[in-house]
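for the writeup, i need someone to sanity check this before i put it in the appendix. the sequnce is what the collaborator sent (i think, or maybe the updated version? ugh). structure was predicted straight from it, no edits. if anything looks off just tell me and ill rerun, i have time this weekend
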Amino acid sequence: MQPHISRLARRHEFYLILIVVVFAVFMTILDPAFLSLERLFDLLHSSSTIGVLAAGVLLVMISGGIDVSFSAIAAVSMYVTVFLLNALGGSMVIAFLIVCLIGGVLGLVNAGVISYFNIPTLIVTLATSNIFYGLLLQLAPRAHITSVPPFLAAFGKSYVIVVAKSGGKIIGLSAIAFTMMAALVLVAIMLRYLSVGRNVFAIGGGREAAKREGISVWKTQFFVYCAAGILAGVAAVLNASLIRYVNPFNVYGLTLDVIAAVVLGGARLTGGAGTVLGTFLGVAILFLIKNNLILMGVPSTWDSLIVGLIIVASVTITVFRKRPAL
């Protein structure tokens, strides 16, 4: 085997791509219309919320932490933003500014508690998740908002790239899907080319070694959790535009799916490893499986079991691949 081919075969993303290809071939046999541009656009559109949330969780996992508060941050950001926009008016730019501000502040709360008290990240974010979500349910006039501003609904229906099919049907890359892809690209650039990205990998690989290299752990943690909160806020706007009403329970229930996608994408729970491409492929595989359960004859009530099995299988495969050869 040639050296470059051998290196490719050792990458986690290589196996994820193989899974996607095999699954696509299998589904095309069951449904010849499965492998089409329209289905691809639909996949990107429907997975946008989880895709952006997964980018934030990826940052946290690479840094060596575990965040389970992102869905609560998204729920709070979504409710408060839509409530303010309905009351005061605004635009998509204002909507993104509000959710980024709310998400960033709540992310900084996580970072402050973790850095100052040196408490394990899982414990902190589990506590703040319940606090954020509990305050929302206690203080909100009602749990649901049945209508969103017209510009928010219009954003959810708009396209960045349009393709006209025979018969006059219009398909295309939605603004929601484009926003997700832009967020993923920005995170990938940050991790690969910016010093703060290298710092994130460094503290995830070993905090003491990172400190000896002169890296500020607490500053990096503040960046990571603030960025994760902002991405949760962006996901909240996309979700509101997608479903065109506010349901905090909807986005709050995505926690396990997002973590499953990130772990499936190759991020290690111990930190120091993970890629945006792998995370995107993890999201795609999760959606391909869950969205085609009925077509494969599997009841949708098996969703939770399948997600749990994906997490166990992903962690197990990662552990075995990292073991030194005997």
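The chain is about 75% helix and 5% strand. The longest helix spans residues 217-243.
thx in advance!!
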